[in-house]
C-alpha cells in the first residue's frame, strides 16, 4: 500500500460505490441532507445571503437545471451551488464535525445537489457523492489542524476540497483526475477569521466561495485541466502556507472503515453551545416527570467553569444574540415554549413567562462536569418544584452529537421549524420534501424539491 | 493624517479622479492596456485557457455586455473577466512589476474591461479604474513581502485585491465600501506555487480566480455586503495567515505621488530573463553598426554568474522551452529573425542559420555585470565580424524596464506579433484596436474591440 495519503484519498474519492456505504451511514447521510435543506431555507431573506444570490443570478443564466432554494428559481450549477451555499450557514443551525471544526453540509450538499440536478443523477448518486464530500473534507480539516483554524475558517478552506470531491464523484473523475481536482481546489482555498472582529458578512462568502471554487475545480479536471499533485503536503502546498501542525496521515485515516460523516453532529438548540447540556438535562427531566414550567420553583444547573465564564455575565439580555448566551433564557424557552429554536428566540426571549423562569435559574460549578470537559459535555440539573419535590436529571452527551443523535421525528420537527422561520416553505411543502429525502436512495433521478 | 494604512489605501482607491493622474502615467496605462490586450489574444487555443473559458461559458449566460477576447463571444462581466484573465498570462508576455513580483495586467484589465463594458463607462473611467487596480495591487504585493511569495503566487493573492479595487472604482464605491470590498477580496485570496513541481495548469486558474473573486467582492460591497476592516494586517488577516515579513506602511507608500503603474516592466524577448541583457546589447550593436547575421564571426557575452549557472548547460536545445534557456539560440533569433518572440521560437529555434549563429556565441563572467546584479541587469557583448572588426555594446537596463521602456512603435509591433501568434486577430483588426487604445482617454464609452 502506498504511503502517499493524497493518492489514497483521491483513489477513495474516485472509486467509492453506493454499495460500499453501510446502511446506517446512508441513513445518516439522508438525515444530514434534510437538516441541510432546511438550514438553507432558513437563510432566506438574510441580507448577506440575498446579496450573494442576487449577484450570482445577475452574472448567470436566467434558467438552468439547478435550483436555488431560497427563491425557487433555477440557473446553472455554479450559480445554484454558490447561492445555496451562501444560504446554508447563515442561521448556524447546520451540522458540525467536532474533530475537524468543520461544517460539512454547507459546502458539500449545495454543489452536489446542483450538479446532480444538472446531469440527471440518481438519488443514490447524490448520496454517494455527498458521502465522498464529507469523508474527504473532514479528513482535510483534520489534516490542516488547530494551527490552521486559528487564522483560517476551515469550512472555507477544507470546504473547497470537499466540494470538489463531491462534484468530482458525480462527474465520474478517475483517481488521477480527482487528484488534479484536489490541486485546483486547494490552490483556490481561502477564508480568514478576521471578519469576526467587526461581525462582517464573510461567513456566507466563505461557504459560497468554497462551493463555487470546488465545483469549478472538478469540472476543469473532467476537462483535462491539471492541478498540483501534492497540494496538501507539498513544499508549497496548503499546509506549507497555512498550517504549522499538519499531519499527512490524517488525510487517509481509516478510509473505507471509519465513516467521518457518521461522527457529524446536528445542532439542536439555537443557543451558545455551553447552554446545551443543561438544556438537554432540563428537557429530559420535564418530560420524564411531566412537569410544566409553572410547576418549577428553582433550577440549579451543574456546569463546567467555561460555562460560568461565558454565560455568567449575561443576567438580563437585551438582544436576541445576548439571549443565546443566557442560561436562564435558554432554559426558560425550553421550559415554557418546549424548544429554544430560532423562532422562539426571536419571538419570546423577553416574554414574561420566559423571564420569570430565567430568574429561577442559577449555575454552580460541578467537579464531575468540569473534569470531563471538553472531552465530554455532561449536562446536570436539579429542580425544585412548587410543591416541594427535589428532582434531578443528567445527559452524558449533548443532544445532536452522534451518541445522542436526533430521531427522524426530531429531525422532521427541526426541519419544519427552520423552513417556517423565514417562510422558506410551508408545512405541507416540507412534508413532501421530507418524503423525498427519506426516499432519496431509491429515486432514479434527484427530484426537483419544492417544485 | 491617519496611520491606518488600510483606510488610506481605500480612500485613495475610492477617490482617485482621472484629472489626478499625470499625463505620462496615463500614456503608460494605455501602453500597458495594449500590451495586455495582445497578451490575452496570445492565450487563444491554449488548452488551460480554453478549458476555463469553456467552463465559464457553460455556467454563464449565452450573451451579455462583456467581451471574451479569444473567441469574441459575449457574456456577463463575471464570465468575461474570468475568461480573459485566464488568457492573459499564458504566453507569459504580459507585464511585471519587479518590486512586488506581481503581474498586474492579467488581473486588473480583464475585470476592469468587463465591468466598464457592462456599465457603459467611458475610456477615461476604464483607465482610471485600471490605475487604481495597479496602485492598490502592487502595494498589497509589496506589503505581503518575500516570505509570502515563497509559498503563494502573489499575482493570485494580491491580484484579488487589485481586481476588487479596479471594479470597485467603476462601481463608484465610497471609501467605506471600498474597504469592505478589500475585506471580501482578501478573504478569498488564494494561489499556491505547489503546481510548478509538476507543471500543472494552475497559473491560468490563479489569474482567473483573482479576477472573478475580486469582481465579486466589489459588486457585493456595492450591494451593502460587509468585509473585514483589517483584512491586511489584522490578527487573523492576510499577513497573519500568509506572510512573516509584511509591512503595513507599504500599503500606503507614496499614494498620489508615487505611481507604481509607471514602474511596471514590459516583457520584450520571449526567453529566460537571464538572456535579455545580452540580447538587448546585441540588438543595439547590430542596429548601430548595421551588421547582418552573416557578417558575425563570433559573439562573446559578458554576463553574471547566475546566467552561466542557468544557461550554461543548454548547448543543444531540443524543445522550444529549452531553447528559451539557450543564450546562443536567443541571440541567433535576434540576429537572424530580428526578434526572439513566441512565433520565432516556435518556428525557428532549430533553423539552420539560427543554429549556425548559436554556435558562435559564448558566455564569460564579467566582474562589473556580476557585481551590479541583481540590482541592475547590465548587458554587454563583444562581436568579431567576418571582416575582422572588433565591436562592443552595452545596455544598462533591460529593454522593457521603466528606464528603457518600449516605444509605441515597439509596443504596436509586439502587439501585432502576439495577436498573430495564435490567430487572435488580423493585422488590420489590430490596427483598429491600436487606434482605439491610443484614443481611449477620449472615448465617451469603452468600445467593443474586435467588433
Could you characterize what this model shows?
Two copies of one chain form a homodimer. Chain A is an alpha+beta fold. Chain A has two domains: 5-267 and 410-442, Orthogonal Bundle (2-methylcitrate dehydratase PrpD), CATH 1.10.4100.10; 273-399, 60s Ribosomal Protein L30, Chain: A (2-Layer Sandwich). In chain A, 52% of the residues lie in helices and 7% in strands. In chain A, the strands form two sheets. A four-stranded mixed sheet of chain A has the order 4-3-5-6. In chain A, strand 1 and strand 2 (74-75) form a beta hairpin. The longest helix of chain A is centred in the N-terminal third of the chain and has 29 residues, at 123-151. The model of chain A has no long low-confidence stretch (mean pLDDT 96). Chains A and B meet through helix 3, helix 4, helix 8, helix 9 and helix 10 of A and helix 3, helix 4, helix 8, helix 9 and helix 10 of B. Chains A, B: Belongs to the PrpD family. Chains A, B: GO terms for molecular function: lyase activity.
How would you sum up this structure in a few lines?
Two copies of one chain form a homodimer. Helix content of chain A is 52%, strand content 7%.
Say how many strands of chain A there are: 6
The CATH superfamily of the largest domain in chain A appears as 2-methylcitrate dehydratase PrpD
Overall 3D form of chain A:
globular
Oligomeric state of shown chains: homodimer
What integer is the average pLDDT of chain A? 96
How many strands, which pairing sense, and closed or not: the largest β-sheet of chain A? 4 strands, mixed
What share of residues of chain A is helical? 40-55%
Could you say how many structural domains of chain A there are in total? Answer: 2
Terminal residue distance of chain A: 48 Å
